[in-house]
Amino acid sequence: MTAVLGGDVRGFYESLGLAVPERAGHEAAVRCFASPDSHRHGDRSPSASISLVNGAWCCHGCGARGGAYDAALAFGHTPRGAIELMITHRLIERRSVRDLSSPACAQSTAVNWNAHPRTTPERPRLEATNADIARWQSSLSRRPSMILRLAQEREWHYGVICELEVGLDANGRLTIPIRTAPGDLQGVLRYQPWRTHGPKMLAVRGTRLGLIPHPSRESAAHVVLVEGPADMIAARSNGIAAIAVSGTYAWRAEWASLFAGRRVTVVMDCDRPGREAASRIASDLSASSDVRVLDLDPAREDGYDLTDALLTRAHSSLGSPALASLERAHATARSPEARGVER
After folding, report:
1. Which residue, of 177, 215, 237, 311, is most buried by count of CB atoms within 10 Å of its CB?
2. Closest CA relative to residue 10, chosen from 142, 133, 159, 123
């Protein structure tokens, strides 16, 4: 096997299920996939980086590192499957038949981290269709026990689940479509709502990240930008017109124009990455929107999020003052008087 330049590194990692940031250059920040349980909150703040030039990766938190071959093994591929996947994405060339699990074979894939590709490979086609979305929706509809558990443990109401076309794939992950303004399918996220080994959020190969739902599909004058689709679904289940940014590093400055003339409240998680993202998003929005940042609990640094706040209120007498103020603002915005002004 011989390492080659110009292969489809992004496509390789997306085929493993990683959602590589759209705007990443030669290097992309991702959550650790080698040992996520050794990080707080499943590595909510991405501590690993991938070279999109040659596929090498390292985690700056736990110290795990390797090449594309090692990444495939970390995601559960067999040695032969890892090599075949690398050949498919042109990261290596098939030169001879040898023991695919040998250290020499794995080492032969290493190349210079600082090398630049000679060509820019085409972005892979999305490996999901509207027919898949419908099939996954049907699969979830036949799991009433899971739907009940999502309502009790995640504050997800079935009506909102149906509205957003959430489904269940063959691997037990919830599927969340990403659509453009006209409604075209541009990606699918695969979410594991309960703690387990491996990344909580993956993406179908070929996914292009975007806001969920697209802002043009939400008519409310006051919208809330939240961190991740799970918080978005919980918020919408509680009457809050929420739109999800797929992660703290997924926001794109050009999306700010989609909120022009609206009131926008930015609610990110209570940790450093969440607060930094909220500040960055608010700065981009400030030129064309009435924007404010709402910190659910300034004293916390543990990743406390909007779903946590909603669950706390639902299951105890304790409630977040910040959440209460957010819901009051939405009740005002949705009142008949406010709707009359909007018209």
Report:
1. 177
2. 123
Would you state the structure tokens that stand for residue 17, as one six-digit string? 């299920």
Locate the domains of the chain by residue range.
Answer: 2-107, 126-205, 209-343
CA distance 330 to 343: 17
Q: How many CA atoms lie within 13 A of 9 on its CB side?
A: 31
Give tens-digit pLDDT for 60-93: 777 778 888 888 887 777 777 788 888 888 888 7
Sign of CA dihedral 70, 2, 207, 146: negative
CATH topology of domain 2-107: DNA Primase; Chain A (3.90.580)
Amino acid at 249: Y
Q: Which of 7, 6, 8, 18 is nearest to 205 (CA)?
A: 18
Q: State whether residue 134 is helix, strand or coil.
A: helix
Question: Is the distance from CB of 115 to CB of 54 less than 8 angstroms?
Answer: yes
Provide the CA 207 distance to its chain's centre, in angstroms.
Answer: 10
Instruction: Answer yes or no: are the C-beta atoms of 29 and 85 closer than 8 Å.
Output: no
3-state secondary structure of 151: helix
Nearest-angstrom CA–CA distance, 330 and 75: 42
**Positive or negative CA dihedral for 270, 271, 275, 278?**
negative
Confidence of residue 320 (pLDDT cuts 50, 70, 90): low
246-282 in b/e form (b: 16+ CB < 10 A) is bbbbbbeeebbebbeebbbbbbbbbbebbbebbebbb
CATH 3.40.1360.10 fits 209-343, yes or no: yes
| Two tokens, residue 337 | 């008087």
> For 126-153, how does the pLDDT look when each residue is reduced to its tens digit (9 = 90+)?
889 999 999 999 999 999 999 999 999 9
If you classify domain 126-205 with CATH, what class do you get?
alpha beta
The whole-angstrom separation of Cα 256 and Cα 266 is 12
